[in-house]
Amino acid sequence: MNLTLWILQGLLAVVFAYSGLAKSTMSRQRLIASGQTGIALFPMPVVRVTAVSELLAVIGLLLPWATGTARVLTPLAAAGLCVVMIGAASSHTRLREPWAVAANVLLFAIALTVAVGRFGQLG
């Protein structure tokens, strides 16, 4: 189970590192053109805060569990990404983008698996 969780954490880290870096550096037009259409409903300061949240979650997914320091931060980071995916799915639903909603649901399920799995290993 530990190896599976590490693989899922790595997958989430890659996806959200890309997303967070893109949202923190690209213009609104470039983000939308690159497929990040869900940001169209939000002002750029909200997009930038989301980007920072995603990048902090990437750190939280990997470092605490790897170092054994403040390990509770890993499942909390995964739970935070669940919240981000709920917001993303809501945005893509309003934009009538079913494939994007499906991707959000998949990422939510992966993040939930990591959160539950790592919380279970804390005790």
TrEMBL record:
Keywords: Membrane, Transmembrane, Transmembrane helix. The chain crosses the membrane at residues 46-65, 72-93, 99-120. It is found in: Membrane. It is a multi-pass membrane protein. It comes from the Bacteria. The keyword Manganese does not apply. The keyword Repeat does not apply. GO terms for cellular component: membrane. This is DoxX family protein.
